[in-house]
Structures are given as structure tokens and as C-alpha cells.
Specification:
The protein is 93% helix and 0% strand. It is built from nine helices and no strands. It is found in: Membrane.
Length: 719
């Protein structure tokens, strides 16, 4: 099936547009996918940052709570720590609001937000109230215990003073030797009672041991027995009064030392135990909340890091596939368009050159020129019209020559007839002179001859008129054919002009395609710049992550040393016995804090390791992507250069088509001139036809006159 020139050019333009559309679509799709992947990676980095902020907030909130528990004996949470708790609350809200758009419809974020908020509220409200309650309770009990201690000390001092006074009374009457041992035992027992009381007060956190209670009872018994012995030896009223006062002081010591003080110590230990239980519960709640939150956050960090790595790998795969697809389609398109363009241009220019040469040969008068073209496109129609025009011209020229020859011959016959008529007239005149009869006879013969010649001439003129009518009809048909051929040539000229316009449009589209490819090149260059910036950022992130790892190593060492020091302190406190019990409690709290620090450091270390691993993989992927982007930039530039060559080829084709259009317009002008010439021939033929009609009418008149003359001659002969 043969295609027309317009169809061929439309096919070429459509192929170019399809190729440009496909290349641009693939490039746009690849760029869109790359930008989407980069955006997704950035989103996951933002999520990781938000999760890291939440993790830092949780760790700091836990550390704050532990510090407050360790420093619970200070009486209240410091204002600085309260301000920091408020700041952490605001930071928790900001971090959760930052993460909210990225994790819509996920339940873990509200849970984490509420857990951190509960942790901070528990520290700010519950723990603070418990510390204040502890401080208030300890202050009240401490006041009571101190008052009891002062009363015991006062009674002991009073007992010692009264014992000294009683000794002086006994000395004044030389009875001191008999009570010296009782007085000494009484003083020793009173001092021992005071010392045992001080020891109990020092160890009040652990309560009163049975040994200390037994020792107090023993010393009180010693005091009572010695007072009884001294009372038995008292003689004077002063001595009896002193002994009575000493018994009252001993009862007071017994009341305060054996009943009030143990009750206060028991209340102290019970209260402290209950408060410690509450602290332990709060500590457990804080640990549970922080552990749950940290576990959720760590899982999300791991998932986000894995997703970011997968997205980076997927982006690299998409980018590589897009590169190879673009290269293959570009090469195939270049080959197809080059072959198609060369074939179409060659299929247009070669026949048109042959047609122009053929038309020039006809214009130069070579009507026997020949061209062989079998296709049914516009050029085929033009060649067929030219060949038909040449055939018609040949026939017209042949007929014109024949008619010209016939006209010459018939004109000669007419001239001969006129000459004979003239001779007949002369003979008629001569007949008048020679005689009517002879003249009439001769005139009759002449008239008969003239009539016969006129009839023959009439027949010739009629035949000529018919031939001229036929010639005029043929000329009319030729004129119509020439009009059709002129219309065909005009259509060819218009098609050539339209083809030139389409070619110009194709050139503009190819130029736009080249501009689009340059834009793609610029876009890919921008992508490469963004990738380089991301790579630098990831390198810095990797460096910071390594620095964090080193810092975490230092923190781990410090925690290990702290744990070791706490263990040593606990050992020394155990060696110190009851005196080191309070220090042992502090050492145990320090050990717990060190263990929690080690655990948190281990978790942070795992997170940092995961970040380092993900960052390393991302950096490697970014290196590969940067290389691929460089290759795409090079290929896009090469595509732009090739499109520029296509624009040049289309420009050349446009110039050739413009030349063809000009040649077609010249041929249309020549066809119009031929049409005018045929019209002139038709007009001349019409004039000859009119002249022949006039000659025929004249001959008719001549025949009538000859008949009248024949009648006159007949009358003359008869008459």
C-alpha cells in the first residue's frame, strides 16, 4: 500500500512526537520516582529524628526521676528539676506533633505520648508528694525522737547530779565508803543507758534490736536496784528526798527509754518501710513505663531504618532500570526515526526531481519526454496529469495542423470559386455583347458550373464547420482537462506548502523536544546536586553517630566503674556493721542507678549501631545513586545532542520541501500559461468556426442568386 506525501510526513512527525513523548514520559516517571524515593527517605529520616527525640526525652525523664529518688532526703524536688520537667513536657508534645503527620492512624504514638506524659506527671506530682510526705513525716518523727532523746539525756544528767549530791551527803557523815560501789554502779548504769540510747538512735532506721532492748532493761534494773540500796542507807530527810527524786527520775527513764523511744523507733521504721515501698512502686512504674516506651521507640527506629534502607535500594533499582530503558528506547527511536526520515525524504525528493525535469522538458517543447512512476500518491497524480496534458496537447496540435491544412485547402477552393464567379460575370457581360441567346447558353453553363461549385463549396464549408465544431468541443474538453490538471498542480503546490509547514512544525516540535531533554538534563543535574548534599549530610550523620558511639563507650566505662565503686562501698559498709548500714543503702541505690545507666547505655548503643548500619548502607546506596545520576546526566546530554542533529535534519528536510513547494508553484504557473494558450487556441478555433458559418451563409446567398440567375436565363431562353 503506497502512502501519500502528506501521510508520510504525518507518519514521520507522529513518530517523532511519540518518541519524544515516550522518552520524556520515561524520564519524567524516573525523575518522579527518584524524587518520591528521596522524599520518602527524608520522611523516614524525619521520623527517625522524632523518635530519637522521644527516646532522649524518655531517658532524661527516667534519669530525672531516679535523681529525685536518690535525692529524696533533700525534702523536695529542686526548682531547676521542676523547670526541666516542664520543658520535657513541652518537648514531648512538640516531638509527638512533629511525628503525627507521618504516622497517621497508628496507635503507638498516642500511647507513647501518654506514657511519657504519665512518667513526667508521676515525677512532678506523685514522686514529689511522696518526697514531701517523707520529709514531713521524718521531720515530725525526728522532732519527737529528738525530744525524747533530750528528755532521756536530761533525766540521766539529773540522775547523775542527784547521785553526786547524795554522795556528798553520805560523805558528810562518813558513810560514803559503804555506798561507794552502789554510787559507782548507778553512775555507770546511767551513762550506759545514755550511750545505748544514742546507739539505738543512730541505728533507728533498722529498729531496736533485742540485744539493745535487753541492755536498756538491764541498765534500768541496775539503776533501780542501786537506788533501792541507797534509799535503805538514807537517814536524813534530804537524803530520803534525793532518793525519792532519783526513783522518780529512774521511772521517767524507764518510761521514755523502754516505752516511748521503742514506740517512736518502731513508728520510724514502719513509716520508712512504707515510704520505701511506695518509692519502690513508683520506681517500678517508672521503669515499666520507660522500658515500654523505649522498646516501642526502638522497634519503630529499627523499622524506620530498615524501610529507609529498602527505599534507597528500591530507588537505586528504579533509577538503573529507568536508565537502561531510556537508553534502549532512545537508540531504537533514533534508528527508526533516522531510517524512516531518510526513506520518506528520499521517497519525496527523488520523484519530485524527476517530475521537475520532466516538466522542464515539456516546457522546452519536448513532448516526447517520458517518465516512469507507478505509485498512486500526489506525485503520481501530478505525473499522470502531466502525461494526460501532453497527450491532449499532442492531439490538439495534430488536429490544429490538420484543420489548418483543410482551412488552407478550402480557402483555396473558395478563392477558385470566387474567381470562377468573376469569370462568369465577365462572360455574362461578354454574352450581352455576343448575343443574348449564345450568352444565355454560355451563361447557363457558367451558372450551372457556379451552382455546382457553390454546392460543393457549401458541402465543404458544412464539413469544415462540423470539424471546427468537433475541434471546438475537443478544445473545450482540453480546457477542462487543463483546468483539472491546473487544480491538481495547485493541490500539489498547496500540499507541498502544507508539507513545508508540517516540516517546520516538526522542526519546532523537535526543538521543543530538545529543550525538554535539556530540562530533563537540568532536572537530573539538580537531582545529582541534591544527592551530593544528601550524601554529605549522611556522611556527617555517620560521623556524629560514630562520635555518639564513642561517647556511649565512655559512659559505659563510667557506669562500670560506678557499679564497681558501689560494690566496694557496699562491702565496706558491710564490714562497718551497724554504723555503715545507711551508707550501704546509698551504695545500693548508686549500684541500681549504675545498672540502669548501663542498660540505657546498652539500648542507646544498639540504636546508634542500627543508625550507623543504616547510615552506612544509605551512604553506599547514595554513592551508587550518585554514579547512576552522573551516567543519566551524560546520557541526557547525549540525547540532547542527538535531538539537535534531528533538528538539523528536519531543517534540511524543511528546506528541501520548501524547494519542492517552489518548484510545484512554478509548475502550477507553467500549467496556467499552457491553460491560457489552450484557451487562446480554443478562442481562435471559435473565431474560425464563426467565419466558416459566415462563409456558409454567404455561399447560401450565392446559391440563391445563382438559382435566380438560372431562372432568368431560363426565361431568356424560353422567351
Amino acid at each position: 500500500m503506497s502512502l501519500s506525501i502528506r501521510q508520510k510526513l504525518i507518519l514521520l512527525i507522529a513518530s517523532g512526537l511519540v518518541a519524544i513523548t515516550i522518552i520524556g514520559g520515561i524520564g519524567g516517571k524516573t525523575a518522579f520516582q527518584i524524587f518520591s524515593s528521596v522524599e520518602s527517605v527524608n520522611t523516614h529520616q524525619d521520623i527517625t529524628k522524632g523518635l530519637s527525640d522521644l527516646k532522649s526525652i524518655t531517658n532524661e525523664a527516667t534519669r530525672l526521676a531516679l535523681d529525685c529518688i536518690v535525692d529524696k532526703n533533700e525534702g523536695d524536688i529542686s526548682q531547676e528539676r521542676l523547670e526541666r520537667i516542664k520543658q520535657l513536657t513541652a518537648e514531648n508534645k512538640a516531638a509527638c506533633n512533629f511525628l503525627a503527620p507521618f504516622v497517621k492512624n497508628e496507635k503507638w504514638l498516642p500511647e507513647v505520648r501518654q506514657s511519657i506524659s504519665n512518667l513526667l506527671q508521676a515525677t512532678e506530682i506523685d514522686l514529689r508528694n511522696l518526697i514531701i510526705d517523707l520529709t514531713s513525716t521524718k521531720a515530725d518523727l525526728t522532732t519527737k525522737i529528738k525530744n525524747t532523746e533530750k528528755s532521756i539525756s536530761k533525766q540521766s544528767d539529773l540522775l547523775l547530779s542527784m547521785t553526786d549530791n547524795l554522795a556528798r551527803y553520805y560523805a558528810s557523815r562518813n558513810a560514803l565508803r559503804s555506798v561507794r560501789s552502789e554510787i559507782a554502779d548507778l553512775k555507770f548504769a546511767s551513762n550506759s543507758f545514755s550511750l545505748i540510747t544514742l546507739k539505738i538512735l543512730m541505728d533507728k532506721d533498722s529498729g531496736i534490736s533485742s540485744k539493745n532492748a535487753s541492755m536498756l532493761k538491764s541498765q534500768l534494773d541496775t539503776i533501780s536496784s542501786n537506788i533501792d540500796s541507797l534509799s535503805m542507807l538514807a537517814q536524813t530527810s534530804e537524803e530520803l528526798e534525793l532518793c525519792s527524786q532519783m526513783e522518780a527520775a529512774a521511772k521517767k527513764l524507764e518510761e521514755e527509754g523502754c516505752r516511748i523511744l521503742p514506740s517512736l523507733i518502731s513508728e520510724w521504721t514502719t513509716t520508712l518501710h512504707n515510704l520505701e515501698v511506695k518509692f519502690s512502686k513508683i520506681d517500678d512504674v517508672l521503669d515499666a513505663n520507660s522500658s515500654t516506651v523505649l522498646q516501642i521507640i526502638q522497634n519503630r527506629i529499627n523499622d524506620t531504618t530498615q524501610q529507609a534502607t529498602e527505599l534507597t535500594n528500591e530507588s537505586n533499582n528504579i533509577f538503573e532500570k529507568g536508565i537502561w530503558t531510556s537508553v534502549i528506547i532512545y537508540l531504537l527511536t533514533a534508528l527508526v526515526l533516522s531510517g524512516l526520515g531518510f526513506t520518506i525524504i528520499k521517497g519525496i525528493t527523488t520523484p519530485l526531481e524527476r517530475t521537475v525535469n520532466y516538466a522542464n522538458s515539456i516546457a522546452n517543447g519536448n513532448l516526447d519526454a517520458f517518465i516512469d512512476y507507478q505509485h498512486k500518491d500526489e506525485i503520481g497524480e501530478l505525473i499522470s496529469s502531466l502525461q494526460h496534458m501532453v497527450s491532449m496537447l499532442k492531439e490538439l496540435i495534430t488536429e490544429a495542423d490538420e484543420m489548418k491544412q483543410q482551412a488552407v485547402e478550402k480557402t483555396s477552393l473558395a478563392e477558385k470559386a470566387l474567381e470562377q464567379a468573376r469569370l462568369a460575370n465577365e462572360q455574362a457581360e461578354k454574352a450581352k455583347q455576343e448575343g443574348i441567346t449564345e450568352a444565355a447558353s454560355r451563361l447557363a453553363a457558367v451558372v450551372n458550373h457556379v451552382t455546382s461549385s457553390a454546392n460543393e463549396l457549401q458541402q465543404i464549408v458544412d464539413d469544415t464547420s462540423e470539424q471546427l465544431s468537433t475541434q471546438n468541443s475537443r478544445l473545450t474538453e482540453t480546457a477542462v482537462s487543463m483546468e483539472q490538471m491546473h487544480a491538481t498542480v495547485f493541490d500539489v503546490s498547496q500540499n507541498a506548502s502544507s508539507t513545508s509547514q508540517h516540516t517546520q512544525a516538526a522542526k519546532e516540535m523537535a526543538t521543543h523536544g530538545a529543550a525538554a531533554v535539556h530540562k530533563v538534563t537540568d532536572g537530573v543535574s539538580t537531582v545529582q546536586i541534591n544527592f551530593n548534599m544528601m550524601q554529605q549530610g549522611l556522611d556527617e550523620l555517620n560521623t556524629h553517630a560514630n562520635g555518639i558511639g564513642e561517647i556511649m563507650g565512655v559512659i559505659t566505662d563510667i557506669a562500670d566503674q560506678t557499679n564497681l565503686l558501689a560494690l566496694n562501698a557496699a562491702i565496706e559498709a558491710a564490714r562497718a556493721g551497724e554504723a555503715g548500714r545507711g551508707f550501704a543503702v546509698v551504695a545500693d541505690e548508686v549500684r541500681k542507678l549504675a545498672e540502669k545507666t548501663m542498660q540505657a547505655t546498652h539500648e542507646v548503643g544498639n540504636a546508634v549501631t542500627a543508625i550507623q548500619s543504616g547510615t552506612h548502607n544509605t551512604v553506599e546506596g547514595m554513592h551508587s545513586t550518585t554514579t547512576a545520576v552522573s551516567e543519566v546526566t551524560s546520557l541526557a546530554k547525549e540525547a540532547g545532542d542527538n535531538l539537535a542533529e534531528i533538528v538539523s535534519v528536519v531543517q534540511t528536510s524543511s528546506e528541501q520541501v520548501a524547494s519542492i513547494a517552489a518548484a510545484a508553484e512554478e509548475q502550477s504557473t507553467a500549467s496556467e500559461e499552457i491553460n491560457k494558450a489552450v484557451s487562446d487556441v480554443s478562442r481562435v478555433s471559435q473565431d474560425v468556426f464563426e467565419a466558416m458559418k459566415f462563409a456558409r451563409n454567404t455561399l447560401g446567398t450565392l446559391a440563391l442568386q445563382a438559382n435566380e440567375l438560372q431562372a432568368i436565363i431560363t426565361d431568356l431562353q424560353n422567351g
